[in-house]
Amino acid sequence: MHHIGNQQRHRPSDAEQWVFTGDVHDHSRFDGDCAWCDKQDQRLSFEVRHAKVDGSCHICQTCIERAPLRMEQDSRALSVQQWRDHLSGLAVRLTHRTCREVLRNLLARTDDPALQEVAVYFDRNVQLSPGRAAALLLALSRSRLEVDPRIFDVQIRSAAHKAEFAHLSEQEKLAVWPVFSVTIQKRLMSLGLAPTAIRSRPHLPEIPRKPAWERAGFAGPQA
């Protein structure tokens, strides 16, 4: 990636001179940095290039949604909502493709029929129920695949899914816990549904960040 002066680290004043190349990168973990706003821990990066200066950089979804950018090789005039819908569609398709690739890699390492059912459920729902998430994340922990568990969305809003989470074993709850946002973790704690090991701590744990997510029971990269 080329550097274009100070524009690399701050949102440029001539944002209308930048063009979205159409390239979206999924880091498969939350370790990307935005070249415009310095926001860190980003899963997705959107490539933009300057219309008059040679070079490109990668920015976060918030910046690209707000900037008056053009799309490379596409002269369509899009409204703000159409532009955001277009970017959101790109992001959703890419993140789901990444999750499916992880599932394929995991299935190639095991003949566990439970994981086959998890893969079918994900294809239909693009999210996982707490029980299926537990099965997947425990298998990932054993597989030593370098995967951040937070790339998977877990359904927890409904009463049925909360009840499903409540009936998980302590090990299963601990496997799923890092996927939830701090807000959801607080909610589950207030309902008395958090893992016993979490409830016994004096303070709420933060969601594991790079590379601390490995401490949640995931082996991380192979030596």
What is the topological layout?
Blueprint: E1 18-26, E2 44-50, E3 56-59, H1 61-66, E4 70-71, H2 80-107, H3 113-125, H4 130-143, H5 159-166, H6 170-176, H7 182-190, H8 196-199
Parallel strand pairs: 1-4
Antiparallel strand pairs: 1-2, 2-3
Helix pairs in contact: 2-3, 3-4, 4-6
Spatial separation of the terminal alpha carbons: 28 Å
Give the low-pLDDT segments: 1-9, 204-223
Q: What count of structural domains?
A: 2
Oligomeric status: single chain
- Helical element count? 8
Q: What is the percent of helical residues?
A: 25-40%
Defining traits:
single chain, about 220 residues, alpha+beta, 2 domains, 4-stranded mixed beta sheet, 8 helices, elongated, disordered C terminus
Overview of the molecule:
With 223 residues, the chain is of the alpha+beta class. It folds into 2 domains: 5-91, no CATH class; 112-216, no CATH class. Helix content is 40%, strand content 10%. A 4-stranded mixed β-sheet has the order 3-2-1-4. Strand 2 (44-50) and strand 3 (56-59) form a beta hairpin. The protein is elongated. The protein starts with 17 loop residues before the first strand and ends in a 24-residue tail after the last helix. Mean pLDDT is 83; it is low at 1-9 and 204-223.
